[in-house]
Amino acid sequence: MSTLKVGRSSVCVRASIASSPQKQYSPKTPAVKSGEEVRIAVLGASGYTGAEIVRLLANHPQFRITVMTADRKAGEQFGSVFPHLITQDLPNLVAIKDADFSDVDAVFCCLPHGTTQEIIKGLPQQLKIVDLSADFRLRDINEYAEWYGHAHRAPELQEEAVYGLTEVLRDEIRNARLVANPGCYPTSIQLPLVPLIKAKLIKLSNIIIDAKSGVTGAGRGAKEANLYTEIAEGIHAYGIKGHRHVPEVEQGLSEAAESKVTISFTPNLICMKRGMQSTMFVEMAPGVTVSDLYQHLKSTYEGEEFVKLLNGSNVPHTRHVVGSNYCFMNVFEDRIPGRAIIISVIDNLVKGASGQAVQNLNLMMGLPENMGLQYQPLFP
Amino acid sequence: MSTLKVGRSSVCVRASIASSPQKQYSPKTPAVKSGEEVRIAVLGASGYTGAEIVRLLANHPQFRITVMTADRKAGEQFGSVFPHLITQDLPNLVAIKDADFSDVDAVFCCLPHGTTQEIIKGLPQQLKIVDLSADFRLRDINEYAEWYGHAHRAPELQEEAVYGLTEVLRDEIRNARLVANPGCYPTSIQLPLVPLIKAKLIKLSNIIIDAKSGVTGAGRGAKEANLYTEIAEGIHAYGIKGHRHVPEVEQGLSEAAESKVTISFTPNLICMKRGMQSTMFVEMAPGVTVSDLYQHLKSTYEGEEFVKLLNGSNVPHTRHVVGSNYCFMNVFEDRIPGRAIIISVIDNLVKGASGQAVQNLNLMMGLPENMGLQYQPLFP
Amino acid sequence: MSTLKVGRSSVCVRASIASSPQKQYSPKTPAVKSGEEVRIAVLGASGYTGAEIVRLLANHPQFRITVMTADRKAGEQFGSVFPHLITQDLPNLVAIKDADFSDVDAVFCCLPHGTTQEIIKGLPQQLKIVDLSADFRLRDINEYAEWYGHAHRAPELQEEAVYGLTEVLRDEIRNARLVANPGCYPTSIQLPLVPLIKAKLIKLSNIIIDAKSGVTGAGRGAKEANLYTEIAEGIHAYGIKGHRHVPEVEQGLSEAAESKVTISFTPNLICMKRGMQSTMFVEMAPGVTVSDLYQHLKSTYEGEEFVKLLNGSNVPHTRHVVGSNYCFMNVFEDRIPGRAIIISVIDNLVKGASGQAVQNLNLMMGLPENMGLQYQPLFP
Amino acid sequence: MSTLKVGRSSVCVRASIASSPQKQYSPKTPAVKSGEEVRIAVLGASGYTGAEIVRLLANHPQFRITVMTADRKAGEQFGSVFPHLITQDLPNLVAIKDADFSDVDAVFCCLPHGTTQEIIKGLPQQLKIVDLSADFRLRDINEYAEWYGHAHRAPELQEEAVYGLTEVLRDEIRNARLVANPGCYPTSIQLPLVPLIKAKLIKLSNIIIDAKSGVTGAGRGAKEANLYTEIAEGIHAYGIKGHRHVPEVEQGLSEAAESKVTISFTPNLICMKRGMQSTMFVEMAPGVTVSDLYQHLKSTYEGEEFVKLLNGSNVPHTRHVVGSNYCFMNVFEDRIPGRAIIISVIDNLVKGASGQAVQNLNLMMGLPENMGLQYQPLFP
């Protein structure tokens, strides 16, 4: 047998470490050392994003879960709430008010929207936090109030929060204490559109987005509308004008454009558990071709491990990223001259939630960004 | 018990007879009399549209199947090809060359695209024909040649063929001998857009359509790409620029506009057996509001049995029309001022194929249009 | 065109009227006349079995719904609860206490188990009632109390109630005022086993049943366990020892055997909306062969419209009966000598619930048993 | 931050190394050293089991794929055949006749049944081989000939081949050069039944098995019967008497029993991609209780990483093992005295195929058995 090649001795970070852009970087806080353990609390562990954090961390070499909270399931074993994870050695669920954070270095906050602001306000200051709710995603607290129907409850934290779209805001995330992890739709939309807008390759008017989501996006709450019998074998649009991810997307695109962008956004719920496809219909700037869009996305994401521009006319399928942290995308010519169609796919629970959250905490801890995230998609 | 109310004595035509627009009409050929039997041939009966014709006709009071062809299954019983229909008393499958048309009044032609032109050319002249293939849908045989890669093989029949979008071309269909039954995407798109374009309520530029189809649209051919394992739990776009339904839609919209219309059309295949949703992003004409669109569609389809504009902000779901001949639609305001979003849903095998075919033959035979079609959707 | 053949003038009763066994029969009460309207109340119309009654009756020539109740949805239109049925002209939902039964001839009672006994007790005496709950299925009220945890609340009605397994108890049902419509599992199991037991062709010991149900069997209640995300792409057994359909099956088999039968029964929930398969592993009586079982089932069900023994080694598929009132079944040789395997399939909402209920009320009204039930299965 | 605990420095082998039974063992051939690379060939890489090997090895620290064959796809990139794995750096596909084995240490043979015997005969002698086909599973070549319709083509290799049911035959597998990887049904059935039979806790007569499989078990071949449209939303039994996994199961049970065992075996195909459930109805030996069965399985599998006996009355769900190498099982009391019901679930592509294959090659190479296999199930 041959000797193992250089760079393969560490399982989970092979291949991408070399190309990772973070090497030139010195974080403000001393990074966790290689091999050192980071003690993790998962708040709101009884929902799907919480369970997904647990699944991903099962193979993370340095993150270890020491606290798990779930108010309505307090006292239960995690394996009774999520039997697919019974083999994991985990702390029992406690109510958040009973959680002991003295043994914790970092927090994944998987609580419902609205409740999170006050809870995070109450956490010890030294903790690093990735919040998977929408509570800190909108920089403008007036916009927050408008979309969520109540005043923001932690405006000072909002100032501090960094928006966690990893590939776009990597450097800010590294230095952050509190990261607002992006929504699933916003992740799948901004990854292709932000660089194209920054490069002024597409027009800001008439950006039309038809997006399709799997049902895990709706959470684990018991609702008639999400029963198997109501969802299987069908599709429907919802929240056509007023989906709460709209201001988040418009914030990101407007910043990239340095001018206000208003999008058309139609989300659809389809009969799949995981997966998200965003189809974006855009007008190109004068003189710009589809090939220009393609080349710009190619150079933007060339070194990235988790964002992949497909070759040629290959169409991204949601099935091809399930269970992984990948975003696959591609650009297509439209029949209408001057227009292009961009399609991106992610697993809404991974790159659209818990996977990107782990990616962000890796960065915040000075660890390789892909640590614990090298799951290949599960297909079929 | 009370006496049965007037209008309820005939099962399958209740309710709609009164409102049906066909009463003022005198067809050129004498219509089949009430109670008289129409003998039907189904050509290409081993595919899904053929089976669906059989299912629908099981309760048609005047159509009776006397001939069924399926070249590769010749000699077999239909019930061995489609075991869900074993209870039906049907003729055995024969090769098309062995079919005896002396006992036939009308034909549903469910053959693959391309083969149909010559076969229909060879049928006895007195037969009424509804062709479910794409072979006679494009009026311009040059356009046919361009999209299908070979010269049209029956240009004289193409002249005669009437495009069978029932609600739009009802009068022409009544007098037709040969009807080209519309494709599924074109049906779902033209039903809302043709009246809006005719009324000049929407602009002709930048009509963007994102459509989603169930897998029966791909037929029963054994292809790796359509295996359960490849399709379940996912979505992907396909034929992004070049789907063959594009020229059919553009033909219909251009005629309505009396000027050439070019659409953006992105079809998606999703993990459901039946169902189709078309989402249409349009720019309204200056001064027009979403309410104007709604009112126009409302008055257009008010008397129709099979086209239903939903109330208020109700969103059409594909699940709510499965198994039925209905098209449900609605109109929504876009976030971008001056734009509207229109959503329509059909069962691609019924209103998008075999149901509309039966509806058309009913008309051609002078029968109530809804005869044999009053299946309510199967939900859940 | 030829003249319509004799026997085809009435759509919905063709073919089977001639072979229907009910012709020799004189019901105690004068049957409803042909063409006369039967006014129907549907109690508990907001669940799946209620909606299915509405779907089936849409094409019933003599049943018309005049009252619909749904306590929690009182005041709503039925079409807002079940949008797939918006085209139906139906009375609004009322609370059961506000229902006016003066305009009602017969009742489908689709209420939850347990609440039904007192409600039916309070209904006017002249109404004919088909109860789809389990409340009157167990003849022995002690057994009821044991399985349902409370004393029976209408023991005098229990005496009167006739068990509605149509093909087995047709004559009793014709004369009944109150029919206890069978459960879905019991229907799929008793149809094959009761005749085999009566004929003493199979042993009474070690009857092992592995059954699989679609999720509509669990109703429309919002439960975490029945979310799309929890159910899709999987199977699990449940209620392994204590499913409440067990005493109902054992009652039927014991009566057929004229001796107590104890079964092994393992139900499974699988990721499909409709459908039920029961696989029965039985020991044959000494000297009996699989062919004997087959022949006996064949002669038992030869004239039946809704129970079909498949030919040869054809295996019943749940997909082949969806949306229809059929039960398909077949018998197979086991590898273990002396044993046989019997498989039956039904649509749990039709033959397993609402379809059989309509079939029973047809009988009770002296109408052709298949009236309004001639839906062919919806496949694919 | 705390120092990382002992035993956590290596990602993929944590927890279970300590309890792994292989430490007392000295293999005949020197094991591969920690960190040394094993070069792997995957033969027949264009099927689902081949793709699954690639997915699993993506995180294997010591196995590296250097050769991939797929005759009909020779010359293509693996990522064009399985786009979900495009991020993997893999050799191009070659025809098997062109494969260069000089750079290979071990082979996963994922070829179709029947072709494998001659191909393996032609491979270099020094290679270690795990064959995922059925070609070497039956020790008795006469039985092979009977079930597969042709004489065995490599009887001398059959003598050498070790049956790869890891937890049952671990020691033999460690010393093997050629391992016949078990079938999916046989894995799910033998894991619970072999120890119970060995301990004489269940009777050998009347072992009745009703098993349910996902559709990946049928492979990637383009067959009408396996189209999405034919499979979705349904279940059917198949191969009721003659499934080819029967002799494999009977071989294993007979060896455990030291006497011939004949089973009743009914496989079902259900609408899910991955997953398998086997339900086993057994008669207990006189005086034995369900608790005895439970305790014996508990002690048998106590130290095992991949076989888990659930607590209490928890029912194994197929969804809870998808994507992982786990087998979950439990034992239940039957209503019929003296009988028990045993349910086991696996992912048919992992523990039922490629996962167990990796587990076996780990053993054959002297590596920790769980290396590269610590994927937690993907739920939902």
TrEMBL record, chains A, B, C, D:
Q: Which Pfam families match?
A: Semialdhyde_dh, Semialdhyde_dhC_1
The family database entries (CDD domains) matched by this protein are listed as: AGPR_1_C, AGPR_1_N
Superkingdom as given in the UniProt entry: Eukaryota
Its UniProt entry gives the catalysed reaction(s) as:
N-acetyl-L-glutamate 5-semialdehyde + phosphate + NADP(+) = N-acetyl-L-glutamyl 5-phosphate + NADPH + H(+)
For this protein, what is the EC number?
Answer: 1.2.1.38
- List this protein's GO terms for biological process: L-arginine biosynthetic process
EC class of this enzyme? oxidoreductase
> Where is the Semialdehyde dehydrogenase NAD-binding domain positioned along the sequence?
39-176
Mind telling me which Gene3D superfamilies this protein's record contains? Dihydrodipicolinate Reductase, domain 2 (3.30.360.10), NAD(P)-binding Rossmann-like Domain (3.40.50.720)
Q: Which HAMAP family match?
A: ArgC_type1
Family note: Belongs to the NAGSA dehydrogenase family. Type 1 subfamily.
Q: What is this protein called?
A: Probable N-acetyl-gamma-glutamyl-phosphate reductase, chloroplastic
Q: What is the lineage of its organism?
A: Eukaryota, Viridiplantae, Streptophyta, Embryophyta, Tracheophyta
